Amino acid sequence: MSNRHLARTIAMQTLFSWDFNGKQEKDLTDLIEQNFKQFAPTFNDHGFVKRIINGVIKHEAEIDSYITKYATEWPLDQITIVDRNILRIGIYELLFDQDIPAKVAINEAIEIAKVFGGESSGKFVNGVLGAIYKNTAETIKKTEKPQVENTTNN
Predict the structure, then answer these.
(1) Distance (Å, whole) CA 66 – CA 46
(2) Least confident of 71-75, 80-84, 95-99, 150-154
(3) What is the pTM of this model?
(4) Nearest alpha carbon to residue 44 among 90, 98, 6
(5) CA distances from 30 to 89, 123, 139 (A)
(6) What is the model's pLDDT at position 144?
């Protein structure tokens, strides 16, 4: 398992606990540390996990509005806590984290959904994130860092 995949898994588990307990806590540092101790005691990239969690919480209302808009058959509170928080991470990375390519954000969310979600979670997450990407691709492309081509002048 790659470090980033493990980090996303820890972020999902932390957000799951936070959501499950009614989103009461404002500072999730203790919960993050607890999850590291329990699930990945030797993992050393706490910064990436904190970046994801803080980004999701900072943009929670906007992220949830995307879930509501694109998962039209499912009211937000009827989506499983696991799927809801996988979607939150995927949408955060897709729309707000310019360091993560869109396809990586989508693929990682799908893989986490396949492992931690229900039988159809992977397809559900793929459908929602795919629709968001399709309808926001122009915006995403404008904000993503351009790739520099290596050219030589002859």
Answers:
(1) 27
(2) 150-154
(3) 0.86
(4) 6
(5) 20, 33, 36
(6) 45
Taking CA 103 as the corner, what is the angle to CA 44 and CA 122, rounded to the nearest 5 degrees?
85
Mapped to the 3 state alphabet, what secondary structure does 63-129 carry? HHHHHHHHCCCCCHHHCCHHHHHHHHHHHHHHHCCCCCCHHHHHHHHHHHHHHHCCCCHHHHHHHHH
Half-sphere exposure of 42 (CA within 13 A, CB side): 0
Distance in angstroms (rounded) separating the CA atoms of residues 83 and 104:
18
Ramachandran assignment for 79, one of left (phi > 0), alpha (psi -120 to 50 degrees), beta (any other): beta
Q: How far is CA 63 from CA 58, 107, 134, in A?
A: 9, 18, 16
**Which pLDDT score is estimated for 26?**
75
**Region label for 75, one of left (φ > 0), alpha (ψ between -120 and 50) or beta (otherwise):** beta
